Description:
Shape: globular
Number of strands: 11
Amino acid sequence: MAGTNDGFVSKLKSDLSGPLQASTYIGxxxxxxxxxxxxxxxxxxxxxGYTTSANYPTTPGAYxxxxxxxxxxxxxxxxxxxxxxxxxxxxxxSSSEYGTAVAVREGNVYVAGYSNSTDxxxxxxxxxxxxxxxxxxxxxxxxxxxxxxxxxxxRFCPTSRLTRGHL
Length: 167
């Protein structure tokens, strides 16, 4: 355990019997909260949540390598929950972001949540390009050409994209 409130991912048999097949902590020195985890057909695990940890694990080439405040995150682990992370990134602006849902479709990763940052990264031509309330919803689309890196795009609505780095 690295922090005060680390998350964990555990792999069990489909009938929930027998010993754990795999289990791991994941987090940084400060608190992290996990809102949603899913598995894909290859068994990889995607996690979305939020953290206040400046040392939450990210991977080289990530969309956002450094914590800005309290940021959302997206993390991808291999099917055995072992070895280095496949991909991991922060996602946020200068205030607070919360990742509350994650989905994967045709190689694209979609993260939803809410933000109270005035500088959450959005692209031109989207449905809502500026903050309008205390906490505004966001949707981020992360796309990529390979299984180990994802090129990042973000948006509030399905019209425009911003490509920067890798997840």
